[in-house]
């Protein structure tokens, strides 16, 4: 049956892929975005679809859309963007959660919160299971995002307990793929852009810190599976690729795949930057029958091909 689905942050990197997939599955999709980090180009190919609607609106404003499901993705997700206006970042997570939860309550809609691995902070447990409560600096430069997302999770579970709102919560680990912004400051896009321009590739710290990288198609599959999972499974659940790579390994792989002449340079590590990040996805495998299928090299080739088309 065709559902009407609201995607906040739907013109962003992940949101646009989600809108595209939901349309392919035969749904009506309402994409809401204030275009602070989202881009119309990400959804331009969807505009002629009669079952797609774009609303330019900030999630800090009251949301009035009749819908069956809500995916709440609204929030800048890269450090450069969420630290640009940290107060607004915190408000987007908290007030945005309140507005979308209020809508879900009124419409009796199921709502999914796109939370983040950043709620684990600089983890003391590796890999990170959903039961780990995190090690987050509440007053650091990243706190606007980390603590905002933690508070959003709190609100989701309070609405579930107090108002019986039908919630789902996922924690997204590093994701990459086509439609990433070239200026978002994330490591994959940074390295690819620098390599394609034959500029020095900048590694922060000694290059031994690790990340796990999930290709966007795998993430979208996990998100949709979670949204449509059994009612009594609320999460939170980790969605990410447990393959773990050092920054140096990533830089060397990007140089090889782009056939770049770039050299590697080192800069100081930013404040509160985690030294390790890797999801435990046992819960996703058990409850959603989900695991990623696209390896890092395959995903990077697709992402590099995209960046070749947008870098002059």
Brief synopsis:
This protein is of the alpha/beta class. The chain contains ten helices and 13 strands.
Could you outline the blueprint of secondary structure elements for this entry?
Layout: E1 4-8, H1 13-24, E2 28-33, H2 40-43, E3 52-56, E4 69-72, H3 79-82, H4 86-107, E5 110-116, H5 143-163, E6 167-172, E7 175-176, H6 187-196, E8 201-204, E9 210-212, E10 214-215, H7 216-227, E11 237-239, E12 244-246, H8 247-258, E13 264-267, H9 282-288, H10 296-310
Parallel strand pairs: 1-2, 1-4, 2-3, 4-5, 5-6, 6-11, 7-10, 8-13
Antiparallel strand pairs: 9-12
Order of helices and strands: EHEHEEHHEHEEHEEEHEEHEHH
Classification by helices and strands: alpha/beta
Q: What is the helix tally? A: 10
Biggest sheet layout: 7 strands, parallel
Using DSSP, what is the number of strands? 13
Strand order of the largest sheet: 3-2-1-4-5-6-11
Written overview of the protein:
The strands form four sheets. This protein has a seven-stranded parallel β-sheet, with helices on both faces. The mean pLDDT is 94. Helix content is 38%, strand content 17%. The protein has 312 residues and is α/β, with parallel strands linked by helices. It has helices at 13-24, 40-43, 79-82, 86-107, 143-163, 187-196, 216-227, 247-258, 282-288, 296-310; strands spanning 4-8, 28-33, 52-56, 69-72, 110-116, 167-172, 175-176, 201-204, 210-212, 214-215, 237-239, 244-246, 264-267. It has ten helices and 13 strands. The radius of gyration is 19 Å and the shape is globular.
Keywords:
10 helices; alpha/beta; 13 strands; single chain; seven-stranded parallel beta sheet; globular; 17% strand; 312 residues
């Amino acid at each position: 049956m065709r559902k009407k689905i609201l995607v906040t942050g739907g013109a962003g990197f992940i949101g646009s892929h989600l809108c595209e997939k939901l349309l392919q599955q035969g749904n009506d999709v309402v994409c809401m975005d204030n275009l602070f980090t989202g881009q119309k180009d990400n959804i331009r190919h969807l505009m002629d679809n009669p079952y797609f609607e774009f609303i330019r609106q900030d999630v800090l404003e009251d949301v009035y859309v009749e819908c069956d499901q809500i995916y709440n993705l609204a929030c800048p997700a890269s450090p450069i963007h969420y630290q640009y206006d940290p107060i607004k970042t915190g408000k987007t997570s908290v007030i945005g959660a309140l507005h979308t939860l209020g809508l879900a309550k009124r419409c009796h809609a199921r709502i999914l919160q796109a939370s983040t691995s950043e709620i684990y902070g600089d983890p003391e447990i590796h890999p990170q299971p959903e039961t780990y409560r995190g090690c987050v600096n509440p007053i650091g430069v990243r706190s606007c995002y980390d603590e905002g997302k933690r508070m959003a999770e709190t609100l989701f579970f309070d609405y579930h307990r107090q108002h019986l709102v039908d919630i789902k919560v996922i924690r997204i680990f590093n994701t990459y793929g086509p439609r990433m912004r070239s200026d978002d400051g994330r490591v994959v896009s940074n390295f690819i852009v620098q390599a394609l321009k034959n500029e020095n590739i900048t590694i922060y710290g000694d290059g031994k810190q690790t990340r796990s990288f999930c290709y966007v198609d795998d993430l979208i599959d996990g998100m949709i599976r979670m949204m449509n999972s059994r009612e009594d499974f609320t999460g939170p659940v980790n969605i990410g690729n447990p393959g773990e790579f050092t920054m140096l390994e990533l830089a060397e792989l990007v140089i090889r795949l782009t056939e770049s002449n770039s050299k590697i340079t080192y800069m100081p590590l930013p404040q509160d930057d985690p030294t390790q990040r890797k999801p435990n996805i046992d819960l996703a495998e058990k409850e959603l029958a989900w695991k990623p299928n696209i390896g890092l090299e395959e995903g990077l080739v697709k992402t590099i091909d995209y960046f070749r088309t947008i870098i002059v």
